[in-house]
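User: My advisor, Dr. K., asked me to get a structural model of this assembly before our group meeting. I'm new to this, so sorry if the format is off. These are the inputs:
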Amino acid sequence: MNFNMFCEFTIGFAFGSFIYVYFFIILKAFPEMVRMLKDLTIPESWK
Amino acid sequence: MRFLPTDYIIMVVYMVVVIALGVYVSNQGGNLRNMTVANRKVGLYSLASSFIATEWGAVSLFMQNNTGNPQAFRNLIIAWSLTFAFLIIGFTGLSTILPRRKKAITAGELIGLSYGKTARIIFGVLMSFVYLLLLAMLLKSFSAVFGVFFGTSPAFLMVMMVFVTALYTISGGMWSVVLTNYVQLMIFGLIVPITALFSVKAVGGFEQLFQSLSQASAKALSYPESFLSNTGFAAGLVKFLIFLCIAVCFPSIYTKNLSANSTKTAYKGFLIGSLSLLSCTVFTIIIAASSAVLNPHVKGAAGFAKTILAASPKGLLGFVIIAAMGIFMSVCSSFFLAIGSLFSVDIIGQLKKEQLNDRTGISLLRAGIIISAVFSIIIGYNFDYIETLFEILAIITVSGSAACILFGLYWKKADKAGAIGSFAAGGLFYIVSDLCFRAGRSVLYGGSIAASFLAMILLSYIYQKKKKTKEEPPKGMEAKQ
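Assistant: The format is fine. Below is the predicted structure of the whole assembly, which you can bring to the meeting.
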């Protein structure tokens, strides 16, 4: 594999994998975060 | 000034959201375990998002050095070696499964369990300084970035960001780090790839970028020529070893792993984070390479910011700035927490005779964060040779700590003498070969790692043998008795 091909492959792989990981994580982590925030104990003085 | 009123609104809204989240979880302090590892309740995707958010800052800090260099794309090789190193550590479960089996909550504790107090304190002190210098470098680099964005020295903004980050880390510990990291990643995870694409567009597309780079330098688009050259295979291998050691011993990575709600979560989260390292690095390299065409004479963070500023469309600037703020703050918060826990649990906690109670532990952790915030500002703004100092200290700490952790986990004979020796040998090798022989960087780095590992094996072996001969009296003596 020449260097140009290596660069193209790496850049393509980086964009592709990141788009997948980013949306996957952001979407899946949202309910987790909401659950986490709900589980937190709120101090009496705030209620 | 290129900013629109909406850009300022975006910045203010971002700051308010981050502070509000920090305050919301502020009552979660409670005990030290809650502060440092969020009571081990963090789910897989939250963990992965926090991982990626922190990596991004660290990677962008080091990759900015290639800005304006036509050979910037050669660093794609480093991007792969970094990713592979972390993936290997991820697959072996070295920093995820094994520490949990030993029931440790920090990297220092892992060292303490195998080698006792002294080794743990040495590790704590060295690592705290490494993180402090990292923070100072980060401050310096992002100060240059914001300086280009705003056109003036942004000292007030930088100090404000450091203290806002310190404030939310102090109040909610790991809880606020995970929450704010998620919000920050949501923003810069979108903005950075987009700005990378815009900067390529400003050059005239990928084809044009490759063509301009090869015109600027004959070596720009070729593999490193010789085995031992500065960017050659041997240097690559040494860097790969360093990345392996970093993945094994950095406390901020451990605290994230150990805050996961199960071993499986930690294992998977670390792997997702490792895979994303490649993308974070590649985006930064793309901007650095575009900068070689657009602003060839401006190097470092300033060139990086100049390229982004010139390439981004007007409406996007507010988001670009909060993305930069997010990267800075996410990595700062993780480092603050790491320094705080090193200071309270691994240094003061070990110096005290009685065990730390939760109240004192948390107060010390908070004090550690405030001290590091103040000192990072002082060092970042007043000292010129932070990078050199960081390089020396980081390689000594990383090689020594990696030897300690690896042998502590896998070799029963490893002991205190080997641990202290491994820190000393790495440092000694670096200083002697640098001062006396003016050795190249690869020799310095690789040699320090080898010296630490060798010292660990030799000293542990000798010490064990001595111990045995002391415990077992000679046979003749037994007969006489």
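One thing worth pointing out at the meeting: The interface with chain A takes residues 24-25, 27-28, 41-46, 48-49, 52, 73, 76, 79-80, 175, 178-179, 182, 185-186, 189-190, 193, 206, 210, 221-223, 272, 275-276, 278-279, 281-283, 286 of chain B (CB under 8 Å).

User: Perfect, thanks a lot.
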